[in-house]
Amino acid sequence: MIMNLTDVFTSEGKVKKISQTYDAGNVSYMGENYPVVDKSDVSLTFTNIGTGRILLEGELSLTVEIPCDRCLQSVEVPIGVSFVHELTAPNEENVSEEEEEQCFMSGYELDTDTLISNEILINMPVKVLCREECKGICPVCGQNRNEKECGCDTFVPDPRMAAIKDIFNANKEV
Ligand SMILES: [Zn+2]
Ligand SMILES: [Zn+2]
Fold it and tell me: Using the 8-state DSSP alphabet, how is residue 171 labeled?
């Protein structure tokens, strides 16, 4: 959604609150699409903090389905998004250090979709595990070891040794 903020930029002390539906069905992150299974509305509060300056506070919570890093089973991950930005009108001297990051502002207009999706990406978890003690997938047979022990020998040797072993095996196949 594109919001024109001229009224807030120009009225001293003005506070404007809006609530907006977050309607994206999934989050695209690092080349993958993760389905959004639950979400709150986006709440945005704009406060005029001087001529041509707005303090923007926003909040959203959502639940995204992300595969476990070890066993690839879907995990519902709650993500809390909360942010504060200072917006500056185009004709004002920029007092904020954020200027270059504000790709969501164009003149007096705020692109809320760009803003929100940026904020979600910042809050995406680096690592997702279905549980702390997830045993993961057997690298030998692919069995999910949380469900069943496959009994494979999964001793992982020094990677340099593994490379030598690969060469050895490749030679043997010839
Ligand atoms: Zn897992
Ligand atoms: Zn196995």
Answer: H
